[in-house]
UniProtKB/TrEMBL annotation:
PANTHER family: NADH-QUINONE OXIDOREDUCTASE, E SUBUNIT (PTHR43342), POTENTIAL NAD-REDUCING HYDROGENASE SUBUNIT (PTHR43342:SF2). This is Respiratory-chain NADH dehydrogenase 24 Kd subunit superfamily. Residues 1-46 are annotated as: Disordered. Residues 34-46 have a biased composition (Basic and acidic residues). Gene3D superfamilies: Glutaredoxin, NADH-quinone oxidoreductase subunit E. CDD domains: TRX_Fd_NuoE. GO terms for molecular function: iron-sulfur cluster binding; metal ion binding. It comes from the Bacteria. Keywords: Iron, Iron-sulfur, Metal-binding. InterPro entries: NADP_DH_HndA-like, NuoE_dom, NuoE_N, Thioredoxin-like_sf. It comes from Coleofasciculus chthonoplastes PCC 7420. Residues 8-28 have a biased composition (Polar residues).
Length: 197
């Protein structure tokens, strides 16, 4: 018979430590101290969040891995929706505003689903002076979309970059990850129209 069971108590006060509430065995003590493990992963059960968990855990949830985690999220989801940004912010214990700020600062991250193809026009100084702005305007006008948008049929996303680091071949345009040198509005339109056929 346990020690607590040998000495009943008269008290009715809840939460008060009495002889009846003292653990009677070592198993009772360890069970009482062991908190329930929190469920890992996203409440939706989406397995893509597991990739983010692994990346954050490997870096010991340090805030300085934010860009790496956002890259993994972009790879896994195709774009960074609000739910993903919130999940990353909670995992790295960062304000959502900081995560959102980083996601919107870099042109490689997208907050909207992208098209089948991407066209990134450099608007850095060298490219802009040599006609990058005209290339961008021609694409926007022809397809009826703005920078950051995707054509209604989902074929192309039009993006711009502050600088691609390809100033010697200005104006540069990146078509599906391949840098094309010395682009004109006509050359860029011809390339993109080829995707649409």
């Amino acid at each position: 018979m346990g020690w607590a069971n040998a000495h009943p108590t008269d008290t009715q006060n809840k939460g008060e430590l009495t002889m009846a509430t003292v653990p009677t065995s070592r198993a009772d003590t360890t069970a009482a101290k062991k908190p329930k493990e929190a469920k890992k992963g996203h409440p939706s059960g989406d397995k893509r969040f597991k990739v983010l968990d692994i990346t954050m855990k490997r870096a010991q949830y340090r805030p300085d891995v934010l860009i790496e985690v956002l890259h993994k999220a972009q790879e896994a989801f195709g774009y960074l929706e609000e739910d993903v940004l919130l999940y990353v912010a909670r995992g790295l214990k960062l304000p959502l505003s900081r995560v959102y700020g980083v996601a919107t600062f870099y042109h490689l991250f997208s907050l909207k689903p992208g098209g089948t193809h991407t066209c990134v026009v450099c608007t850095g100084t060298a490219c802009y002076v040599k006609g990058g702005g005209q290339v961008l305007s021609a694409l926007e006008e022809h397809f009826g979309i703005q920078v950051g948008d995707t054509t209604p049929d989902g074929e192309m996303s039009l993006l711009s970059a502050r600088c691609l680091g390809a100033c010697g071949i200005a104006p540069a345009v990146v078509f599906d990850g391949t840098v094309a040198p010395k682009q004109t509005a006509e050359l860029a339109l011809e390339k993109v129209k080829g995707w649409m056929e």
